[in-house]
Amino acid sequence: MPTPSSLRRTRRATHRVYQLMLSGGMALGITLAGMTGVQAAEGDDAVFGLMKRWAQVNYQSSGDAQETGMEALGKEVRALADQYPDNAHVLTWEGIILASWAKARGGLGALDLAKEAKATLEQAIKLDPRGDNASAYVTLGALYDKAPGWPVGFGDDDKAGEVLRQGLAVNPQGMDTNFYYADYLASEGRKAEALKHARLALKGPARPNRELADQELKREIKALITRLE
User: Fold this and answer.
1) Which of 3, 92, 128, 162 is 20 to 30 A from 171 via CA?
2) CB contact burial 27-41 (16+ within 10 A = b; e otherwise)
3) Is the CB of residue 136 less than 8 Å from the CB of residue 27?
């Protein structure tokens, strides 16, 4: 049965289908579960290449070119996840890329991709609740926050807040954990709390090998602070 929160989202979702705001600033740092060191390293090496290409496609392309780029990345990361099904880092980035592909595709065609991303991120969290400095929580929370609610999709304001707070508990100083929670709070009309977390986000530490992502996320953070002040 739909919750009151999901019903509220259904009304709002009549003007949109899937507009996902996904973080480019997903932090590194992973505790891998259920794998040998060699297997983990092999899976991670492959992910690092996909991460760099994802940032380029996400921030330096648009329109059909972006959708085509995300589709190619999506197919590659699915194959990688089939090879390393117990690597939480791989699954986290599979979820991020699939959700970004859904955003690039847009419309009703994004629905299945968004659901696949949700299930993948939930599995990554199950394997390693503290993995990737809460990147899986950030992306999953953003999906709940931006997706339309019942009966079209799974969007739910209350669930979004719950998941984003779980991410903050794992990474309380993170740039992305604080920004996406701030954005959520702003959408809920909780301006003072949103501004507090946006300012924390701006002070968040840089992520290794994520220069482009950090740069773009900081622009979003500054824009949010300007809007809230």
Assistant:
1) 3
2) bbebebbebeeeebe
3) no
Structure tokens at 124: 């990554």
The CATH architecture one would assign to domain 4-228 is Alpha Horseshoe (1.25)
* Domain coordinates in residue numbering, the chain: 4-228
In angstroms, rounded to a whole number, what is the distance separating the alpha carbons of residues 160 and 65?
30
User: End-to-end alpha-carbon separation of the chain, Å?
Assistant: 39
What's the whole-number average pLDDT of the chain? 85
Omega before residue 4 within 30° of 0, cis: no
Q: CB-hemisphere CA count at 13 Å for 214?
A: 14
Tokens standing for residue 82: 């089939």
Please write the tens of the pLDDT for every residue from 179-213: 999 999 999 999 999 999 999 999 999 987 789 99
